[in-house]
Amino acid sequence: MVFQSDLLQGKTALITGGGSGIGRGLALALAAHGCNVAVMGRRAEPVAAAADDIRALGVQAAAISADVRDPAAVEQAVAQAAELAGRLDILVNNAAGNFLCLAEDLSPNGFGAVVDIDLKGSFHASKAALPHLKARGGVVLNISSTLQYFGTAAQLHVSAAKAGVDALTRVLAVEWGGYGVRVNGIAPGPVADTEGVRRLLVGRAKETAVGSTPLGRLGSIEDVCNAALFICSDAAAFVTGVTLVVDGGLWLASNGMTEAWAASIEQAGS
User: Fold this and answer.
1) What would the pLDDT profile of 229-238 be if each residue is shown by its tens digit?
2) Under a CB-based contact definition with an 8 Å cutoff, are residues 201 and 262 in contact?
3) Which of 39, 58, 153, 232 is buried most deeply by CB count within 10 Å?
């Protein structure tokens, strides 16, 4: 372990989209460092499996089946998470949706669905969690992306939603700082061991992304987890309003990333 195993001892977290991918990795990482964790997602099976794995690490867990697009369901999920150990200290807004689609082919429903999950879902969960977080001073961690830092073709819907998430991070950091609530973000680049990269970066696209990354590889879930553990811990007690890019420097090599997405679009169309 990079951090001491009791880094988050006695704290409780709620992670949206916690049943798979980065969300599941974050749930297990927080649990391995002493945190009780409630995992929330639309599909009951993955969140139940994640909760079982969390309990196996010796902390309390809850599996919550709910959709972040439904404010009432989110309110209930937050209350359930807070009941787990009588407190809620950390909210991780990780629920997200994505698919490749050029803007001219993007339907209003397709655009709206991603904004509803990524941006509005993050707002719903953050607002519902605030009364619990400000009781002791807590943390909101928004999982963003780097797509909005480029003119990323076929990713208008996600880029718009994640740009909004970054704005949410900054504004809530200012508004909620007086409550002792820190609000930060992590913007992962392509993370190799996720369904998103397996589905969206295929063949030549993946090779191009790897070759364009200054540190010479795609990210891992562990890379994102290590950044999250720092942000959620007292080591980052004076850090708020920041979205930390975790992508090995890929976003700085924007031409390479543009080529990688062009290859993805070409593959999708073939």
Assistant:
1) 999 999 999 9
2) no
3) 39
Cα distance between residue 254 and residue 201, in whole Å: 16
The total domain count for the chain is 1
Range 179-189 average pLDDT: 98
The residues near 224 (Cβ < 8 Å, ≥ 6 apart) are 22, 25, 26, 143, 186, 188, 191, 246
CB burial string 179-214: b at 16+ within 10 A, e below: eebbbbbbbbbbbbebebbeebbeeebbebbbebbe
Give me the count of residues in the chain.
270
State the virtual CA torsion across 259, 262, 263, 264 in degrees, nearest 10. Answer: 130
CB 30 within 8 A of CB 13: yes
Domain that holds residue 202: 12-269
Residue that is written with structure tokens 């073939």 in the block: 270
Averaged pLDDT, 203-207: 82
pTM above 0.90, yes or no: yes
Mean pLDDT over all residues of the chain?
Answer: 94
- Asked whether 140 and 183 are in contact (CB, 8 A), the reply is yes
CATH number for the domain that contains residue 32 = 3.40.50.720
